[in-house]
Automatic annotation (TrEMBL):
Transmembrane segments: none annotated. This is Pyruvate oxidase. Pfam families: TPP_enzyme_C, TPP_enzyme_M, TPP_enzyme_N. Belongs to the TPP enzyme family.
Amino acid sequence: MARQNVAEQFVDILARAGVRRLYGVVGDSLNPVVDAIRRNAAIDWVQVRHEEAAAFAAGAEAQITGRLAACAGSCGPGNLHLINGLYDAHRSMAPVLALASHIPTAEIGLGYFQETHPERLFEECSHYNEMISSPEQMPRLVQTAIQHAVGRGGVSVVTLPGDIASRPAPTKAIEHALVTSRPTVRPGDLEIDKLVDMIDDADRVTLFCGSGTAGAHAEVMEFAERIKSPIGHALRGKEWIQYDNKFDVGMSGLLGYGAAYEATHECDLLILLGTDFPYNAFLPDGTDVKIVQVDVRPERLGRRSQLDLAVWGDVRETLRCLTPRVRMKSDRRFLDKMLKKHADALEGVIKAYTRKVDKHVPIHPEYVASVLDEVADDDAVFTVDTGMCNVWAARYLSPNGRRRVIGSFSHGSMANAMVQAIGAQFVDRERQVVSMSGDGGFTMLMGDFLTLVQYELPVKIVLFNNSSLGMVELEMLVAGLPSYGTTNRNPDFAAVARAAGAFGVRVEKPKQLAGALKDAFKHKGPALVDVVTDPNALSMPPKISADMVQGFALSAGKIVLDGGVGRMVQMARSNLRNLPRP
């Protein structure tokens, strides 16, 4: 039996860690690894057209499965293309291992062809970033990289020179049991004691929830019932906490709606559960409201707000410890007041997308999102482009505990949706995956539409085509600048899709929309619905001032995107039924 080389051993370790695909583009220094995959039935090579797509796809796969995913790039420019998708995966806490192949070891530091220094380049977007300099080093280093990615939630980068990859592997490599899942973290008794006292002393408590509430829906609802608390959420918390939630008061932030802002400012105790909500101007300043933060990542505690108590722990485990100990509250006046404000706020904007929508041309984009929400599967995965599509997803997609919504919500990159859909669809070809793409984001990585066709991935792309970089136009508008350089001269994208071998349909009238979406969803392979939408969709967010938008894409905070909230108004009306009658 021939002795393994380093590349083969590397692939074996990935397979043992549960990796099922390696996304990337073949080339020179990466060839030994790709050839090893060709001969290993446990892992598939997924050929994308751009390495950035490889990193986004791996990050999406990791978010869907919760398991380690992997991507790779060849030396120099090849692995450098990974960086944007890796930033996104890292900031989304998606466990991803990236292989950055490298030039021959004898040439490193001598200005060789395509030379870069991956061990420096990826430092900021990874928990672990090291170069393999000998065959003997490889097994332990890769195992360490895997444990960093899985254990801390984020990216590890392994740099492997092509000549090392081709060398014989050590015959007695050290292998140990790999960490492939994360533990839960329980807070200390002292913190629980302090938090119990703060809750019992408070008259008005509000919960504000983020993605850290994943898997804790039941615990959050039980806790809110016990303390009669309204529940607001950040965008990344929407899919985990908004459904089956009779305490829901909406979302805060520039894309927010409802009474979440009021609930977080009119309480006397605000509890931040599993959220790294970055816009501190939307949070109370701590002078009138006491603030507690619960997070599994201790480095995130207190970096947005001045805290009265920091609690290091998993949200679910924290609430399991906390709920039985807090005193049951009977006064629901604050909760009922916030629920009423929430319903009134939604009633006020619902008309924005219901008036004459069947005749308005170009089509209201919010109407497109509303119809999409109705016809999509109950367990669909939505991938969402940054910009206006973020707003349509925030206000119109109805979570139900089975749907997933993935986007570049922390990194804020363009062009994420379609390529994230690649990774989501590879996980399960039978599950509906819908990419809510803007024309700007779609065209940036449009080459990877061919990846969908090549692998016959049944991703459905709903293209919000307003022929502009709409969010950038808003930035210019609120800054008092004329829009410049934001107009796209677009082709008939449906015709492009058909030419590539996919299903394509163009929609220019509202009455065509529902039928076009249904036809695309019935199609067995990739499909694109090119919807010509109105670029002039603007309205006021619930509460805004100029200082709220610092550090956000908008340079001033007087205008964001269209009102209207889809089926969320029905949820708000339903929750009002829970208010006790006098």
